[in-house]
Structure formats: C-alpha cells, structure tokens
Amino acid sequence: HADMAMFYAKESGRNNYKFFEQEMIGRAVELQSIEASLHLALERNEFLLHYQPKIDLHSGAIVGVEALIRWQHPQRGLLLPGHFMSIAEDCGLILPIGRWVLREACLQAAAWMNSGLPAIIVAVNTSALEFRSEEFLEHIRATLKTTGFDPHLLEIELTESVLMRDVESTNSVLHSLSDMGIRLAIDDFGTGYSSLSYLRRFPINTLKIDQCFVNQLNANPDDATIVQAVISLGKSLHQRVIAEGVETQEQYEFLLAKNCDEGQGYYFGFPMAPQSLAALLKAGGSLIPASD
Ligand code: C2E
Ligand code: MG
Ligand code: MG
Ligand code: MG
C-alpha cells in the first residue's frame, strides 16, 4: 500500500505528494495515540478474548479453541490484534498483556471445565518477547496453580521465527513446558524457516499449517502440494496437524481426503465471545456445515 502511494505520489506530482505526506503524518499521530491509550487499556480492563473452535475433521466435534485478543477501544470500537500488537511489542507492553491473556484464558477454561462442559484444549499465542523473558516459565506455573486449570489442556502457540532464534535456550524452555504437561504448537507453519532437525528434537505436539497455503488450495496446485507435504511431515514426526483459515467446503474436503487431523477457520466457526463458545460446546455435535 505504501509503495503504491509512493508511486502515485511520484507520478502525479507535488500536490499528491503533499497529500501523501499528510497521510503519513496522520498515520504517525494515530500510532502515537494508540500507544498512549494502550498504556491505560489494561487498567481499564479494555482487553477481551474471543475463542475460535478447532474441530476434528472426521467428526466435526470441537477439540480445542484458540484464544485471540481483542481491544474494546473507547473511541475506535473493537480492534483486532493487527492494529495494536506490534505497537505493544515495540513499547514492551506485550509482557503485561501476555500475562493477562494467559491468566484470562486459563480462568475462562477452568470455569468451562468446572461447569461440566466437555474438556477441550485451550491454545494461547505467545510472542517472542514473552517466550524469552526470565519470568515466562514461573508465570505459567503460578497461573496454572492459581486458576486450577489442567496443564494438559493448555497449548502454547509459537511461530517458527520465535523457535529458531537461539535454539539451545528454545529447546530448554520447550522441554520445561512439556515436562509440566503443556502442549506445544508451531503456528503459521511454512511461512518461516524451520530446521527439520530441530523440528524432530523439540517436543512439539502440533503443526498449524498457515492459512496462506490453505486459501488457494483448490486454485493453486503448488499450495496443495505444500499442504499435503506438511501433513505427511507431521504424521511421520507423530505430531497433530491442523489447517488454519479453512473457509470453503472444497478446502475442507481436500484436507479430509489428505487425512489432516484438525481444521480451524470461518467455514467451521468465527472467533467468538466466551458465552457463544460455551453454548456450542454444550450443544455438542458437528461444526461441519451440511453439504449441498
Ligand atoms: P494467528 O495466531 O495465526 O491466528 C489466526 C488468525 O486468523 C486470527 O486473526 C483469526 O481470527 C484469523 N482467522 C481464523 N480463521 C480464518 C479464516 O477462515 N480466514 C481468515 N482470513 N482468517 C481467519 P486475529 O484474531 O486477527 O489475530 C491475528 C494474529 O494476532 C494471530 O495470528 C496472532 O499472531 C496474533 N495474536 C492474537 N491474539 C494474540 C495474543 O493473545 N497474544 C499474542 N502474542 N498474539 C496474538
Ligand atoms: Mg495462533
Ligand atoms: Mg496462525
Ligand atoms: Mg498468523
């Protein structure tokens, strides 16, 4: 988008360049104001978690959920993480926000389990800064203890770039988590650089195929090949494989035919408020839409 703006600005001369400059200033001001209000958001309790179902592709049953942060901004409305998480990372607020996310997800999940809903895996995304912080393991241990949530039902999602930086310390943190019974998933798999030898050494339970490969599955033969290869890789390493961003019946049918374990995407369910997710869990049954 910025490249295009620059192109048009150059093409059509000074007037447009001025317009472009103003847009950039406007954007900088917006970033600054988001950063300022981000500092207050935790105290004001403006964050919330939505939960998106992960389903077993064979039965359609909910086997887990991914907790996804949202910010109920007083002026701007409900903001998605794309609008504020990189700012939170740049100014270090990602650490207290990450602690809030973990605690909130564990509290919610423990409440679901205590109310007699079927047990599901609850996944939480973790940023590089959190994963590398000194207090990370201790905070997880303490949170599990105070919330009473079963560690075997907690999954931590990490991207390849987080895992492959400083592999020795990564390996030790992953083993500590795994020893606590916590499950580990590689998020956005296929978009970063993973060393296959570490993929084998790390105690990883789940590979999440990035949605960019799933999007074009039925239009682009290369993407279909990649998805199939990741499913085989996961199987041979005894990992569960889940496809992200499943939006159509064709994508679902392809994944099922290739024996992918799980799916997540708008085709099965959007990220939703905890009450809605609880209602779905209570109803049981399959989230695979009836085909026509
Ligand atoms: P992610 O972990 O890869 O999460 C999946 C994203 O894909 C979510 O976007 C989800 O709403 C979206 N999605 C799910 N199904 C579909 C689909 O069928 N089609 C399409 N086009 N998109 C789908 P969201 O909620 O905007 O989150 C974006 C990213 O922000 C996440 O990507 C994750 O990297 C980060 N994030 C979200 N919550 C947290 C959090 O609590 N902590 C940290 N550190 N990062 C988070
Ligand atoms: Mg994720
Ligand atoms: Mg992902
Ligand atoms: Mg992503």
From TrEMBL:
Residues 31-285 form the EAL domain. The chain holds residues 303 to 594 of 594 of the full protein. This is cyclic-guanylate-specific phosphodiesterase. Coiled coil: none annotated. It comes from the Bacteria.
